[in-house]
Amino acid sequence: MNEHVVGLPDEQATIQLGSRLADVLVEGLVVYLSGDLGAGKTCLVRGMLQGLGHNGPVKSPTYTLVEDYVLGDSLIYHFDLYRLLDPEELELIGIRDYFNGKACCFVEWPERGKGWLPAPDIEIHIRLKNEGREASLTGLSETGAALVASLKRD
Fold first, then answer.
1. Is residue 38 one of the residues assigned to a domain?
2. Can you give the residue range of the structural domain that contains 146?
3. Cα–Cα distance between 125 and 104 in angstroms, integer?
4. Which CATH number characterizes residue 95's domain?
5. What is the pLDDT of residues 47-94, one digit of tens each?
């Protein structure tokens, strides 16, 4: 397990962390995002998508459960499971099709899909810290640990 803690004094720092994450993305990566409402999970995904060249809006898929983005050769799925009432609902949206080993999947509120989601490569927890926030990135697979280690070196 490899952990990296990053201070996020403002929204721009969260976007920059997302952009740095875009630089190390690999096909099939699964990232769990946790933190309170308004912690900056979607902001982090926005920074990552902008880092990949996305110029449009990035909204939290709270009501749709998933938003997809095709950026060059990259396919990104952004999930928000906050409003999920029963994890079995994931079967109805064909959850297994999204985690196909090719797309990168970012999942907010992953605990609500417990038992239906694959294990993450990286877990990112964002919490309030003083006047800003702090993100803990933990590599949970060999790939995830290598990516977190590469972020530490930057």
1. no
2. 2-33+44-153
3. 18
4. 3.40.50.300
5. 999 999 999 888 888 778 899 999 888 899 999 999 888 888 898 889
